[in-house]
């Protein structure tokens, strides 16, 4: 084939932080399925400086720029390469992918499934590997003796009887015990010396054994569901299926160098047993609850988040986690270590995007469509600093299905009027926007109230819905977000799939918007977070739109957290405002009249949200639901926090199995599915429209 010709040429290869990028001469040997490189073209007749087997490799164009791509070999070795331009990158990537596919398929054709073979994973690999030289435990090793058998063609698999399921369950229990013995044996090894608990082969063995057990658990679960469906209607009343114990959690293995305890139920803290025994959400009332803002108190919780800093102490934990991940792998079902968690739920994080309610309310005060669009862009860009807590490299709790969060803000009308009256006059970077939080002695007529509600409406995929409204100003925002996370090598990317809708009912305008992606970088050294991607804001009625770019940092040079954007009138294609700066520092807005305004986000005062006390919250409201995890994190007790977190996750899995067994669909509380999105059950645009209709009828 013409596409299988050998190609060669110079590419830049990234070596390390010290050496950086270097030009090397690369040769794609299609016949052998090899990518080789040399110091230069003149040394091509010598032994290659490096060689990668392409069978089973993954060729990935980088999203950092249009020139870079990576070659990830099945052996785990990686080449990070850069072409001179996008066209040359595409040429190399396409040829490498064709060669990779050809040799990967050839291996599959030349190696048919084995008829019958037993092997021990502990005996595989290099004979010089210390993980092979030492035999950990006869019981642990015997656990990995696996037999491969092919069923005779034409024969049906007999339906498994209940007593067979019991036998399988017993065998599974024995296997889990042996797997725990293996983990203990590895973790009891010293932290230094010839053979340590951090040996790469042993870390891989731990990960493989756990993945094997999780896979077997999934298979057993499928058998139970199949058996239940076959027996439905013939079982005596009151008969229930005994489900398998929860899957092995990564958290069980997050502490290297010491034997882990696997306590019985009676040894668990009372709060953990309480978390596991809370009534199923499907048994609770799913009727929407009207929250009285007068019951909410100004939030006194001040959980300052320290950045992770260097993660040397947790390096073994991260290595253990990375050993199970593949490039591009969806992380939705991966249990992440507790030490990286913020002390708040993702639903509360969405609420913290509303921490400048004066700017939100002032949007509708814009005198013209142009001014209202600009005000929305200003509010949008100032929301990420507090919502993301700067650029803290931690993640909020993953909400469980049915979890909700309620809060509100009160904003003195005088301060909103002052903001509207000065028409966002220019500020110097050193100026601070002061917001009064003193509402004592003021009546309900003296302040605006912004109410917020969020709900986790789906578990797989993980989708959150949130809604905020200011009834007095006839404005509301409704959004749904699917957090889609992927493993990208030495970073983790989170795509916020979904759409938001801001409604200004006084003007009959609707603004659609999206959210940027988030990236956790340098996860093995000093983790940090940045936002990236292009987002659009659009108002069909007025013809105004905004395009905003969150720039990720290039390899060399450039600023962190940079953002640029522009607001334009689509009909005339006229740019009416430009913005640049850093989304967690200083933003500069330049208007068509030549004026410039600076906003220092680090000095922009935050209005505290108002939240009901824990004792008045429902069992599935975020703060009450996660209170034991949060308290343990505040005390610095990571092990206890992990135990509470695992209890909540186990309960969610058990509830999901129960719904599957009883064929009970999940019923949301506050949000309704409409097309591909989720909409609040009683949005302001419906209630205002109904009230206007009733008033018209009365007249």
UniProtKB/TrEMBL annotation:
<feature type="domain" description="PH">
    <location>
        <begin position="4"/>
        <end position="101"/>
    </location>
</feature>
<keyword id="KW-0472">Membrane</keyword>
<feature type="region of interest" description="Disordered">
    <location>
        <begin position="637"/>
        <end position="660"/>
    </location>
</feature>
<feature type="region of interest" description="Disordered">
    <location>
        <begin position="104"/>
        <end position="131"/>
    </location>
</feature>
<keyword id="KW-0445">Lipid transport</keyword>
<dbReference type="InterPro" id="IPR011993">
    <property type="entry name" value="PH-like_dom_sf"/>
</dbReference>
<dbReference type="InterPro" id="IPR001849">
    <property type="entry name" value="PH_domain"/>
</dbReference>
<comment type="similarity">
    <text>Belongs to the OSBP family.</text>
</comment>
<keyword id="KW-0007">Acetylation</keyword>
<comment type="subunit">
    <text>Heterodimer with OSBPL9.</text>
</comment>
<dbReference type="GO" id="GO:0006869">
    <property type="term" value="P:lipid transport"/>
</dbReference>
<dbReference type="Pfam" id="PF00169">
    <property type="entry name" value="PH"/>
</dbReference>
<keyword id="KW-0813">Transport</keyword>
<keyword id="KW-0446">Lipid-binding</keyword>
<dbReference type="InterPro" id="IPR037239">
    <property type="entry name" value="OSBP_sf"/>
</dbReference>
<keyword id="KW-0333">Golgi apparatus</keyword>
<dbReference type="Pfam" id="PF01237">
    <property type="entry name" value="Oxysterol_BP"/>
</dbReference>
<dbReference type="GO" id="GO:0005829">
    <property type="term" value="C:cytosol"/>
</dbReference>
<comment type="function">
    <text>Plays a role in regulating ADIPOQ and FABP4 levels in differentiating adipocytes and is also involved in regulation of adipocyte triglyceride storage. Weakly binds 25-hydroxycholesterol. Interacts with OSBPL9 to function as lipid transfer proteins.</text>
</comment>
<feature type="compositionally biased region" description="Polar residues">
    <location>
        <begin position="117"/>
        <end position="131"/>
    </location>
</feature>
<dbReference type="InterPro" id="IPR000648">
    <property type="entry name" value="Oxysterol-bd"/>
</dbReference>
<keyword id="KW-0967">Endosome</keyword>
<dbReference type="GO" id="GO:0032934">
    <property type="term" value="F:sterol binding"/>
</dbReference>
<dbReference type="InterPro" id="IPR018494">
    <property type="entry name" value="Oxysterol-bd_CS"/>
</dbReference>
<dbReference type="GO" id="GO:0005794">
    <property type="term" value="C:Golgi apparatus"/>
</dbReference>
<dbReference type="GO" id="GO:0031902">
    <property type="term" value="C:late endosome membrane"/>
</dbReference>
<protein>
    <recommendedName>
        <fullName>Oxysterol-binding protein</fullName>
    </recommendedName>
</protein>
<keyword id="KW-0597">Phosphoprotein</keyword>
């Amino acid at each position: 084939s013409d596409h299988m010709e050998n190609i060669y040429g110079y590419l830049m290869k990234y070596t390390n932080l010290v050496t950086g990028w270097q030009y090397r001469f690369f040769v794609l040997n299609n016949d052998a399925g090899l990518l080789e490189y040399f110091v230069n073209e003149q040394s091509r007749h010598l032994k290659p400086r490096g060689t990668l087997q392409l069978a089973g490799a993954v060729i990935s164009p980088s999203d950092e720029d249009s020139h870079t791509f990576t070659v990830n070999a099945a052996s785990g070795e990686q080449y990070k390469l850069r072409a001179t331009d996008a066209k040359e990158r595409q040429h190399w990537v396409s040829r490498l992918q064709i060669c990779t596919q050809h040799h990967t398929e050839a291996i599959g054709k030349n190696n048919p499934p084995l008829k019958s073979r037993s092997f021990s994973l502990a005996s595989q690999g290099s004979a010089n590997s210390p993980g092979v030289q030492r035999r950990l435990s006869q019981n642990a090793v015997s656990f990995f003796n696996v037999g491969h058998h092919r069923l005779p063609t034409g024969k049906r698999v007999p339906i498994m009887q209940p007593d067979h399921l019991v036998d399988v369950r017993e065998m599974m229990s024995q296997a889990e015990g042996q797997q725990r013995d293996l983990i203990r044996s590895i973790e009891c090894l010293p932290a230094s010396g010839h053979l340590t608990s951090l040996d790469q082969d042993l870390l891989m063995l731990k990960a493989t054994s756990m993945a094997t057990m999780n896979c077997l658990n999934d298979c057993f679960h499928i058998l139970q569901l199949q058996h239940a469906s076959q027996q439905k209607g013939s079982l005596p009343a009151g008969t229930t299926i005994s489900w398998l114990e929860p899957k092995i959690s990564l958290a069980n293995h997050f502490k290297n160098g010491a034997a882990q305890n696997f306590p019985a139920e009676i040894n668990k803290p009372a709060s953990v047993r309480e978390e596991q025994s809370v009534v199923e959400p499907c048994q609770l009332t799913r009727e929407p609850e009207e929250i009285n803002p007068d019951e909410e108190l100004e939030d006194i919780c001040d959980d300052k988040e320290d950045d992770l800093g260097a993660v040397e102490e947790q390096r073994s934990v991260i290595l253990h986690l990375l050993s199970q991940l593949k490039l591009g792998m969806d992380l939705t079902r991966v249990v992440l270590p507790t030490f990286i968690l913020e002390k708040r739920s993702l639903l509360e994080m969405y609420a913290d995007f509303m921490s400048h309610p004066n700017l939100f309310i002032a949007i509708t005060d814009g005198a013209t469509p142009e001014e209202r669009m600009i005000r929305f862009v200003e509010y949008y860009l100032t929301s990420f600093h507090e919502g993301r807590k700067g650029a803290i490299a931690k993640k909020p709790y993953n909400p469980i299905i049915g979890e909700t969060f309620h809060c509100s803000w009160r904003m003195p009308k005088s301060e909103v009027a002052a903001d509207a009256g000065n028409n966002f006059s220019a500020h110097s970077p050193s100026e601070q926007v002061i917001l009064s939080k003193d509402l004592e002695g003021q009546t309900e007529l003296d302040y605006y109230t912004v109410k917020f509600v969020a709900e986790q409406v789906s578990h797989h995929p993980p989708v959150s819905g949130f809604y905020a409204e200011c009834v007095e100003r006839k404005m509301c925002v409704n959004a749904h977000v699917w957090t889609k996370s992927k493993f990208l090598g030495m970073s983790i990317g989170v795509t916020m799939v979904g759409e938001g809708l801001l409604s200004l009912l006084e003007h009959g305008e609707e603004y659609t918007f999206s959210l940027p992606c988030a990236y956790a970088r340098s996860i093995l050294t000093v983790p940090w977070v940045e936002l990236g991607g292009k987002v659009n804001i659009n108002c069909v009625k007025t013809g105004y739109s905004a395009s905003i770019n969150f720039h990720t940092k290039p390899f060399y040079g450039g600023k962190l957290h940079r953002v640029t954007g522009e607001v334009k009138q689509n009909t005339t294609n006229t740019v009416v405002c430009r913005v640049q700066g850093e989304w967690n520092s200083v933003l500069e807005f330049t208007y068509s009249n030549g004026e410039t305004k600076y906003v220092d986000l680090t000095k922009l005062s935050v209005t505290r949200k108002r939240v009901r006390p824990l004792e008045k919250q429902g069992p599935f409201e975020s703060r009450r639901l996660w209170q034991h995890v949060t308290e343990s994190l505040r005390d610095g007790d990571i092990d206890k926090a992990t135990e509470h977190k695992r209890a909540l996750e186990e309960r969610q899995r058990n509830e999901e199995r129960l719904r599957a067994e009883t064929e009970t669909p999940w019923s949301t509380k506050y949000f309704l599915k409409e097309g591909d999105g989720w909409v609040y059950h009683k949005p302001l645009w419906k209630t205002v429209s109904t009230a206007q209709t009733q008033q018209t009828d009365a007249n």
